[in-house]
Design goal:
alpha+beta, Rossmann fold, Mannose-Binding Protein A, Chain A, 3 domains, seven-stranded antiparallel β-sheet, seven-stranded mixed β-sheet, 24 helices, 28 strands, elongated, voltage-gated calcium channel activity
Length: about 750
């Protein structure tokens, strides 16, 4: 077996898995036969993935010529009326031999709740671009011949499967799982299946940190006309349950719920086996929100789980940690107790802000992980609803190489968690075929193991990785494996070991910022300096290291130096001020005029519209509070980071000077020039337009998909058939199949 590729770390589990090889060696020929089988299956996946990649790149020319595809939930089949035994019998057909399969065409499944009579452009594009790979499907056979399914699934949730076969529907489907838009056909989303998850993310340790405070019982009807009766917890629970379905056998996971108190599911990370995932789901279902919101103890416990797991693994304990990526998913609907009147377990010292105190704790914990030889943890905060304060969550993401997202009641949680899943997939661009653990096939094959491979859009001209566009998979039935090597456990371990290597997600340049997007991009991490020159405005800027002061004292200081409290004249200047601001916020020259009651810049006297992009978006922030007549800017992002503040509050500030008025520190001190030659550590998206345009062009929906009729994409569904009628051979009777 080839050694791990450069840049990948092999898990300590490899030591125990080496024993597997030694166990196989005495069998010689059997081991060779097993290797031949593995190689033949991987060859199938490689060939289909290569063709799917080409199909994606050529979609603009092929989609306009799209011919309709049979939907697996339809009833108007042709070649699939033929009875076949290659893939065995269908359990739903009882004692009947064989089942109806189409070896001429693949069938498609669309994402749950899709209206096939009114397909969206992205779904039409995904169906049509892979319409022409049936020949590749038919020619890609492993050592068994045709004994299982081969398929490609897009990030939009469209799945094309060969050979074509009918999907379960009607009375055979649990009503909760039936899709009303598809005649009660069983809902199916490939993005939650083990093979998709395994292909798009490497092994990882994950701690879910979940806000279960009393505010989770509230509804966000103020935004949606009262039509949505779900509570925030209802929405969060759906997101968590969906997320739990995305973990694979190579992952380790725990869950921390918090309100005024903190509670862990168990004292250590759990191996993400199917049984443990069910256990986690049961816990989520039983949660009753109550109490306040205290971030710090929950995050401290989450880090302690990661640190303890790493220590246990270093001491030689098996199944304690993946020893790969460390991730904290932090979900909240409110603001930390330090920013409200709620009691907290920990009160920051008088000279330390609440935000700084929490970020300092996280950095201390990160250093503990690094001291053990571990990767730093990536934090992905998720705010639910507009009432959720985003200051601390956003700044946590920016300080810990993560991505922040906000989920609203009408949103698809999986779609809004795309940055998290795309982040995990980003390191798999050059990955080969990986193998899943065993699981029950959704389409009736019984226990299977799958070889899968992600497919990506092309890299940009500047070298940024392309975006994940789909996953190719090929199943192998365990009963077929056992014919080659009866040592069941040995075989399974060997298969999994083929794909068990750590993924290094090292973003450079614009990569992570593009993943964050406009709403969540982070400010630059400026090196310390006495003064900063910004070429775009031609002005100098300072952030004096004085004790915190009131707004009036800050303005007086800047004027005494010959300048003004900094103002925002254009978006790129907001980028700079966010980079210079303190975590808790710095004074800028913006106040609410007491006569007009409008927000105005102190020097230019220009009015700032209440709909301006500079204002924070949190629903609880008021621009008309008479006790908050001044403004600060913080590091929660480069847009929507200015908020009203009581003028007497004491904090730091930013001064702005014209070149003629520049103070001595801007002439004789350390000056950093932010100009065309400046190299950003965290580039603003405004400097990433070329890469962004390339990525958008590489993944843009085909123009033809915008105008194709749905009937050109999905063939007529035909008569409404039962599962038995659609799947079982014609010589099979209902009595035999019952």
């Amino acid at each position: 077996m080839a050694p791990p590729s450069t840049g990948q770390r092999r898990s300590p589990h490899a030591a125990s898995l080496l024993l597997v090889f030694l166990l196989l060696l005495p069998g010689g020929p059997r081991a060779d036969e097993l290797d031949d089988l593995i190689d033949s299956v991987q060859s199938v996946v490689d060939s289909v993935a290569a063709e799917a990649t080409v199909a994606f790149q050529r979609r603009s020319s092929t989609v306009p010529r799209c011919e309709c595809t049979h939907h697996a939930c339809g009833g108007a089949f042709s070649a699939s009326d033929s009875c076949h035994t290659e893939i065995g019998d269908a359990p739903l057909c009882g004692t009947c031999s064989g089942q109806k399969l189409d070896f001429n065409e693949s069938f498609v499944l669309t994402p749950p709740t899709t209206d096939v009579s009114d397909l969206t452009p992205d779904v039409k594009d995904a169906i049509c671009m892979y319409r022409g790979i049936d020949e590749t499907f038919a020619g890609a056979k492993d050592s068994f011949g045709v004994r299982a399914w081969t398929y490609v699934a897009s990030t939009d949730g469209v799945m094309r499967t060969w050979p074509g076969h009918a999907h379960e529907r009607g009375a055979d489907v649990d009503p909760d799982l039936a899709d009303a838009n598809l005649r009660g056909c069983r809902k199916y989303d490939p993005r939650f299946r083990p093979w998709y998850v395994a292909a798009t993310s490497g092994p990882k340790d994950v701690v879910l940190v979940i806000d279960t405070s009393g505010s989770m019982r509230e509804r966000d009807n103020f935004l949606f006309g009262g039509g949505d009766t779900r509570t925030r917890w209802d929405i969060v629970k759906v997101a968590i349950l969906s997320l739990l379905d995305t973990f694979s056998i190579n992952d380790y996971i725990n869950m921390v719920e918090f309100n005024s108190e903190v509670k862990s599911l168990v004292t250590e990370l759990l191996h993400a086996t199917p049984d443990n995932i069910v256990l986690l789901k049961d816990v989520v279902e039983g949660i009753e929100p109550s109490g306040g919101t205290d971030f710090r103890p929950a995050l401290e416990v989450a880090f302690d789980h990661l640190i303890t797991a790493t220590n246990r693994s270093l001491s030689g304990e098996e199944f304690a940690s993946s020893n790969c990526q460390k991730i904290i998913l932090f979900m909240t609907d409110g603001e930390d107790c330090t920013l409200s009147d709620q009691p907290c377990k920990f009160t920051p010292p008088d000279n330390v802000t609440a935000v700084d105190s929490l970020l300092d704790l996280l950095e201390t914990k990160q250093q503990e992980l690094e001291a053990l030889g571990s990767q730093r943890a990536h934090i992905f905060p998720i705010s639910f609803g507009f009432e959720a304060d985003d200051e601390i969550p956003k700044e946590m993401a920016c300080a810990n190489e993560g991505v922040w997202a906000r989920i609203l009641p009408e949103d698809d949680p999986l779609r809004d968690l795309n940055a998290y899943t795309a982040y995990l997939a980003s390191g798999r661009g050059d990955a080969g075929v990986i193998w899943t653990g065993t699981y029950e096939d959704e389409f009736g094959l019984g226990k299977v193991i799958t070889a899968a491979k992600p497919i990506f859009s092309p890299k940009t001209a500047s070298g940024e990785n392309g975006s994940l566009v789909g996953v190719v998979g090929h199943d192998v039935r365990l009963e077929d494996i056992n014919k080659v090597a009866p040592e069941f456990l040995t075989v399974i371990r060997r298969f999994i070991q083929r794909g068990f290597s750590c993924i290094e997600s090292n973003f450079t340049g614009c990569g992570l910022q593009l993943l964050r997007g406009e709403a969540a991009q982070c400010p630059e991490r400026l090196k310390p300096a006495d003064c900063y020159f910004f070429e775009t405005t031609g002005d100098f800027y300072t952030a004096p290291q004085t004790d915190p002061v009131s707004f009036a004292e800050a303005e007086q200081f800047c004027k005494g130096q010959g300048g003004i409290l900094a103002e925002i004249d254009e978006p790129s200047e907001e980028d700079l001020l966010a980079a210079m601001a303190t975590n808790a916020g710095s004074w800028i020259g913006l106040t609410r005029d007491r006569e007009s009651m409008e927000w105005m810049w102190r020097s230019s006297n220009e009015t700032v519209d209440r709909r301006s992009e500079i204002w924070v978006l949190t629903e609880g922030v008021s621009l008309t509070n008479p006790r908050q007549m001044c403004a600060t800017i913080d590091r929660r992002g480069v847009r929507h980071n200015v908020h009203p503040t009581a003028c007497e509050m004491r904090t730091h500030f930013i001064c702005e000077f014209t070149e003629e008025q520049a103070p001595a520190v801007c002439k004789n001190g350390t000056v950093i020039r932010i100009d065309s030659e400046y190299e950003y550590a965290v580039p603003p998206l405004s400097t990433c337009r070329f890469e962004e345009e390339q990525l958008q062009a590489a993944t843009a929906i085909s123009p033809a998909a915008q105008i194709l009729n749905s009937s050109q994409v999905i063939c007529d569904l035909g008569d409404e058939l039962t599962t038995f009628e659609a799947r079982c051979c014609d010589n099979c009777t209902a009595q035999e199949g019952s």
